[in-house]
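Q: My collaborator sent me two sequences in one message, no labels, and asked for predicted structures for both. Can we handle them in order? The first one she listed is below.
A: Yes, handling them in the order given. First sequence, followed by its structure tokens:
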Amino acid sequence: MDKLDLPKTHALLSRIMEFELAGVVRYTHYSLMITGPNRLPIVQFMKAQAQESLLHAQQAGELLTGLDGHPSLRIAPIEETYEHSVEHLLRESLAHEEEALGIYSQLLDTVAHASVYLEEFARTQIGAEELHVIELRKMLRDIGVTPHPHPGHANLPNKPKKRAKAGAKR
């Protein structure tokens, strides 16, 4: 096994904590701002995301302190766009989840071959974030929006295939 780069691992776990805590605030805010006929299921989704973000921050903090690190009292910056349509909030959520996926991927790269437990933690979180990306893309597709692809996720389809119009020449 390789030697664990503790300073880099500490920094990434602290960044994850800050980012996930920002997710708690972000998703709580979104749950309050959702309006329209589909409000209730989307509010429940956002509240569940806030709870999961808190759990992820706590898990990262436990690992950080278990590795003799010191958790930050900060949260990652959150931009208030004052755009609260369902589409806009889902797009912001998608961007947030894709960024989280990148941070967890950095953690995996840092701990690979140095700690089986930390590798498994990172892989589990990556799987959770990938699922969130898929769900948000499906939610955006349901409201008639084609989500923009994340550069590192060519395996996630960007656009549904165009259908030929009835009676159109081929």
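Q: And the one she listed second?
A: Here it is, processed independently of the first:
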Amino acid sequence: MNQNSKQIKNQQSGTLPQVKGPDMNDRDRVNDVLAMEKYLCSNTTIAAWEASHQQLHQDLIAIYNETQACHRELFNLMFQKGWYKLEAEEQQHLDQAYQQFSNYSTQFPYGSTLQ
């Protein structure tokens, strides 16, 4: 894994063209399927929330789990090939967010669940 400034990424594979043309390459195809999986995950979740029949709800949850697993595999593939990069967050910002939400926990009606 390469960490350049605040980017977390792997070295990009050499299979992509230097100049992007109108044709789809492997990265474009995987990115397209990843976007579709995100869409399917979101909408399957909504359908499961609103399913009035228990068996339908369970079937939708099973579909969601399969879709989520596919999404994760595609994300891992893109990350391994260097086609997906993340931005590292500064520890100070993480500490501030943790403190902010820890303070909210005092408002929980049954006590804090944050340690």
